[in-house]
Amino acid sequence: xxxxxxxxxxxxxxxxxxxxxxxxxxxxxxxxxxxxxxxxxxxxxxxxxxxxxxxxxxxxxxxxxxxxxxxxxxxxxxxxxxxxxxxxxxxxxxxxxxxxxxxxxxxxxxxxxxxxxxxxxxxxxxxxxxxxxxxxxxxxxxxxxxxxxxxxxxxxxxxxxxxxxxxxxxxxxxxxxxxxxxxxxxxxxxxxxxxxxxxxxxxxxxxxxxxxxxxxxxxxxxxxxxxxxxxxxxxxxxxxxxxxxxxxxxxxxxxxxxxxxxxxxxxxxxxxxxxxxxxxxxxxxxxxxxxxxxxxxxxxxxxxxxxxxxxxxxxxxxxxxxxxxxxxxxxxxxxxxxxxxxxxxxxxxxxxxxxxxxxxxxxxxxxxxxxxxxxxxxxxxxxxxxxxxxxxxxxxxxxxxxxxxxxxxxxxxxxxxxxxxxx
Amino acid sequence: xxxxxxxxxxxxxxxxxxxxxxxxxxxxxxxxxxxxxxxxxxxxxxxxxxxxxxxxxxxxxxxxxxxxxxxxxxxxxxxxxxxxxxxxxxxxxxxxxxxxxxxxxxxxxxxxxxxxxxxxxxxxxxxxxxxxxxxxxxxxxxxxxxxxxxxxxxxxxxxxxxxxxxxxxxxxxxxxxxxxxxxxxxxxxxxxxxxxxxxxxxxxxxxxxxxxxxxxxxxxxxxxxxxxxxxxxxxxxxxxxxxxxxxxxxxxxxxxxxxxxxxxxxxxxxxxxxxxxxxxxxxxxxxxxxxxxxxxxxxxxxxxxxxxxxxxxxxxxxxxxxxxxxxxxxxxxxxxxxxxxxxxxxxxxxxxxxxxxxxxxxxxxxxxxxxxxxxxxxxxxxxxxxxxxxxxxxxxxxxxxxxxxxxxxxxxxxxxxxxxxxxxxxxxxxxxxxxxxxxxxxxxxxxxxxxxxxxxxxxxxxxxxxxxxxxxxxxxxxxxxxxxxxxxxxxxxxxxxxxxxxxxxxxxxxxxxxxxxxxxxxxxxxxxxxxxx
Amino acid sequence: xxxxxxxxxxxxxxxxxxxxxxxxxxxxxxxxxxxxxxxxxxxxxxxxxxxxxxxxxxxxxxxxxxxxxxxxxxxxxxxxxxxxxxxxxxxxxxxxxxxxxxxxxxxxxxxxxxxxxxxxxxxxxxxxxxxxxxxxxxxxxxxxxxxxxxxxxxxxxxxxxxxxxxxxxxxxxxxxxxxxxxxxxx
Lengths: 423, 533, 186
Hints:
CATH architecture of chain B: Up-down Bundle
Largest sheet of chain B: 2 strands, antiparallel
Number of strands of chain A: 0
Largest interface: B-C, 74 and 74 residues
Radius of gyration of chain B: 25 Å
Helix content of chain A: 55-70%
Distance between the termini of chain B: 27 Å
Shape of chain A: globular
Oligomer: heterotrimer
Mean pLDDT of chain B: 88
Mean pLDDT of chain A: 92
Number of helices of chain A: 18
Order of helices and strands of chain B: HHHHHHEEHHHHHHHHHH
Low-confidence stretches of chain B: 1-30, 517-533
Distance between the termini of chain A: 9 Å
Low-confidence stretches of chain A: 1-12
Helix content of chain B: 55-70%
Strand content of chain A: under 5%
Strand content of chain B: under 5%
């Protein structure tokens, strides 16, 4: 009932709408250079730390880098999923800031290329991360059964295939949106919807298999049909968080006044909240079914994460990814205030990093009974994550400042400008 | 997808911008309301430029006027079928579970299949009432009331099956944690007990949600009966020679149920807040219910049952099957009831067809994942289930699955048949939608049958392998549950507000307090922004 | 709060004055005027919730969601304790070699109980704050008022309001565009 208001309440708004005045929706030339430099500085510094780490403990550095790269990819994947969904459901309320989703989406193929250094370093280390490539795994009975899928050639080919697919889909959608900026042709929105229809099928399958390949196969004996959904849930969560952060920063810079309001933050906050819950639902279901059945080949995954201080990390994931944001973000005021919701956006990105850390990193030190987490070299992880996210931030700021902040000819801008949460 | 450029006249008709010739006659909707490609226009939610008064008259008319000639025969037939089920259950209770086709190997089959089938049907109602509410999908207002009713009736059908399956049905009170003379408590670690809590919570919350949504509309029915009572001293009576007016009975019953609702804005404010919270908690509830149902299987170690994707996969399947049932009920209803096409337009049909396509694809995604991971796991029991218990036809290999036809019926109905909805022609054809919905309903029944029976009938020990065949009692009970469902739905159609009247009015363009001041066209705006740069 | 009791010529106690409006827009703007005139005991009756009416009337946000949240989380916690005590302490049952009290297995029922009691709180709380059920109300005796459930929009200002004055209140409603202005008897 809450959604009630007059049907078709949107009405033609032109560039004369006060929120759409040019100074409000475009960055001044040179704007954001400070932030860009800060991000690329962070990126270079972080990656330098990884380089130092490589000489200290190369496997650790590789796994840390993978945590960072996967985080960056999931951010862009999340944005892509939302662009597809918004296109498909004819969403009106997002029109004023869908361009920002598209900005992050368009980085997906570029960021995915960061898998190449991971693959190269992994190859140099003889399969230290993707252990099924290592000589130690040779002749493993289980591995031999799945060798048709887990073999280096097919693996690299699949990865390349995902990235090419994603490049095609994201660039097509991006092109349609930018073309509309120029031509004002409203039918491009319909075209984007049709593209999104098949694209979401392709994305669902390719992202699931990317999740299998890039994360699940690290522990090649482990298998879970839920993994693709788990990967998606994390992506949607962190993608939403990144979007909130971008919009809050733009509002802080005095832009998008009246175009992105508390109403939009409220709904984005609800999305963030609902993906906190959805992720918890998926993560718990996966854990719970494996725990309850207690089949050894599955429980090994969790068993490994019960060694040493890993349960602490697991608890940190539960608390930061679910319990705390769940309770606090229930409050309406938190979601409507750009500052508080931006705080939770950063919080959510951090929580997602811990989640990915929990998934990837045990592979490195778990055999070391004294310190299975590898606390001694946690600085490599910090460096890798901040480094990769620094590069991503640099890319995002570049994209955001490269053109108008709003897709100015979106036929549903009026709905978004009028958007209100009643009740 | 259809062509990009729709005919301008049609577009205007659909947007309600031009007056349509036969408006005001009882003839059902003109302009079909289907979605148009033009992204700057939203199709109207109510066709034929109905006024508030017309909406009230039409919807209340369903409850106040004599039902169509089909109604009573339909009620008698479905009621008789339902009664048959009563007899079957009576026979079961006095004889025992042996009257069913269960056996040592397949010790869980028909009843649990029906249970999961029915509980899944209910999920569409909650999706429409709760999730679409949170997603601000205004079109839900035309279908939510009947879908919620369907949910409750489906839960009633579902709850019957585990209820009668417990063997000693008179011991059912041991299920809830009630202090008892034996000093024992239920086993909270059992998925079956989670079911008890999940289903009873689901039934209760759905009923509360449904009832709360109906309060204002029941008050409308009350006021109309009251107005007629006050306006004239005489009117139809409940039976010849009994001087009790039908309207007096209506005013009393609807009056009692509407709790004295007087359409106060202060009340509306709290009502909407409560409604939103109910929608907010029903959303995780609906996910949890079918997840918990899936736990019945997935917490086991049986290949084909134990797989981690079961919770979301079951939820998607439930919504899929539920929408098919919503469409199976509403497509005939909108033909049989006057003017119903003004509210349930082709746009609504198309939206639901799209949901069928999406959820059907999700189910297909889950089948794919199961199949892939069964192979990827390297566990030969896992791959055995999918290959030799389900997919491989006996006419290809004599090691094949005796139930291959059930598996392929499921694939055909659930994954392939909805794919026709990629084409707008089929998405906007009630006949095609009805046909696909019918197939999907069958397919979703088979899905549960495939999961349950094919996994069990050839498990770890080949010496125990066996088959399952339903008995007459099994079959009668299932058919009768359809009778119960239909009977309840027919009664609902006659006596309760079939549409959420207040919600329908609120999504009409003239409901906005800013409507006149901004000078909208009646019936939806032409948002011709874009394209004129 | 209410100071004076007004009666009609026939001696009936006056409940308030009611005015009728044709459209949501009319009643919305009239409500703004009544709010600005400083009335507190008054109400707008509409066939469906009009959005933004809370603001036009100056109604504060209800605390109901907060109460539902507190009750829901509390009941979920109690539900967990119930299971923990029954299976972990009072009646220990060995199943599948799992510990007697396992938080994991208690999650589903904990969740369901939280939802169940939130739902009860939502609907009972809504009725409680709305003082419903109330099957008798002076307004429901007015024939014209019954049309609110169809397509009329009404404002009723109660005689119990400290600002209430039969003439001034009537004039206010008239000025706001109200039609069929009428006294309502208790």
